């Protein structure tokens, strides 16, 4: 549909009150789509990357304390958890001791403030769908806001485009489905467009720590802040060794043409390169989405680029109604915030322990988080109690949605600290104090109940 489609999209965004910088950023990616850009990163264009480990880095208490004093924390909190059947902020999900993600994040920040005697602003980037729920839940933490800074800023929104002609989709049945968030990469656009970037710099903050609200391992650790400050790098990402659970996820690499670090997401990988993507020996590191960013460096880059960092395009194809595959195909124009690593010269990577990466994307992850694999310390940080994380694969027919998941685990998660893997096929309900040891596979063609106190050990169990 060419520029006519872009003009219609622009008009729609203006009418909805979308920020001008966000509109220009969207227009940049729209033009890329028009010219056939796919955002794909061929395997032949990259090579594996190595990096230093936090375990080998020495950071003095003084350096750590000084670094955390100049740090502000941003949590990405725009997700609804729709893949798990939720219709409100995913971070409201109860995870431990009756506490939600939001409760634990707030308490982690308050503990660090007390420990180091610092302000440590905690700011949430909400979406138009999560703002009200989130702010209501945080209202009880009256000492959380920092004077002169907001507790939230809003992620931008953009029109979803019909795949057939790139025109903005119209869906009167549910107008909300006409819009989508632009991906995590929007954090840079939103920081600038809302004026928060300037506010933070004016109030003397040197750096920000950005992470996902569904990762309770992403504590604004003073030691990592000290490493980043001492490195002099403009931008850094914490990385972890990939495991079997990460085979389908993105990874870091180095671009052959210019030596820049890149983050290749699954949606940027061609079908013929999927085997290389899954090769854990070749591409050994994935992103935690824990980012450290020098605020002055970010402002310089945005100024140089007229507010558009130019992150690699992610062309995400969906249905207008995600729950109805018969509805028209639409394109969501997205970017990944970690992809900014290729924008900053001198950007760094550092390998961290898995304790800093505890994401909850599915109920498989939720089961592990709620189990005794993790212990919550008095400062609300998590300690992994088992040497390795168990691999969990629950039957999506019965466990994918949180409501169904909770119904089948009425007494809480089974003990998993001695488990290697748990595979569940069929409709199983777990009684209280069930323990899983080694590799366990459950399979049944009809509904089954595991009695309280049962010890499930290596080998298949049929019902």
Report on the structure:
The chain has helices at residues 2-15, 20-34, 61-69, 101-116, 131-138, 186-193, 196-202, 222-231, 274-277, 295-304, 363-370, 396-399, 402-407; strands at 46-47, 52-53, 71-77, 94-96, 99-100, 122-126, 152-154, 158-159, 161-162, 179-180, 207-212, 235-241, 251-255, 261-264, 285-294, 314-319, 329-334, 348-351, 374-376, 382-384, 391-394, 415-425, 428-430, 435-443, 448-450, 455-456, 459-462. The longest helix has 16 residues, at 101-116. The protein has 2 domains: 2-356, Spore Coat Polysaccharide Biosynthesis Protein SpsA, Chain A (Alpha-Beta Complex), CATH 3.90.550.10; 363-462, Hexapeptide repeat proteins (UDP N-Acetylglucosamine Acyltransferase, domain 1, 3 Solenoid). With 463 residues, the chain is an alpha/beta fold. It starts with a helix and ends with a strand. It contains 13 helices and 27 strands. 41% of the residues are buried. Helix 1 (2-15) packs antiparallel against helix 2 (20-34) and helix 3 crosses helix 8. It has an 8-stranded mixed sheet with strand order 2-18-12-15-11-3-6-7, with helices on both faces.
Percent range for β-strand residues: 25-35%
Name the strands of the widest sheet in spatial order.
Answer: 2-18-12-15-11-3-6-7
> Any idea of the CATH class of the largest domain?
Alpha Beta
Determine the mean pLDDT: 94
CATH overall fold name of the largest domain: Spore Coat Polysaccharide Biosynthesis Protein SpsA, Chain A
Q: Report the sheet with the most strands, covering strand number, pairing sense and barrel closure.
A: 8 strands, mixed
What is the tally of helical segments?
Answer: 13
Range of helix content? 25-40%
The CATH superfamily of the largest domain is known as Spore Coat Polysaccharide Biosynthesis Protein SpsA, Chain A
Count of discrete structural domains: 2
